[in-house]
Amino acid sequence: MRSLEYFPATDTLYIKLRDGMIDGGEDGGKDLVIYYSADDVPMGYEIEHASEHGDHIVAAMKLIREIDGEQRRRAA
Description:
This protein is of the alpha+beta class.
C-alpha cells in the first residue's frame, strides 16, 4: 500500500511507491534518495528539505500515476 510519511523536525518526506523489500538506494538529485528493489524497481522516495522540493514530490506523483496505469492494464 502506498503511503506518505512526513517528519516535521527534519522536513523529510518519505513516499512509499510499492510494497516489497528494499535492496538499496541511490542519490536521485539534490536532497533526494530513491530506494529500489533487488530488480531495480523504484520502491520509495526520501526527500530531505521537502518543503523546498516540490519538483521531487511532483516526480513521485507522476511515477505513482504510471504504476496505477500499469496495474490497470494488467488487470484488464
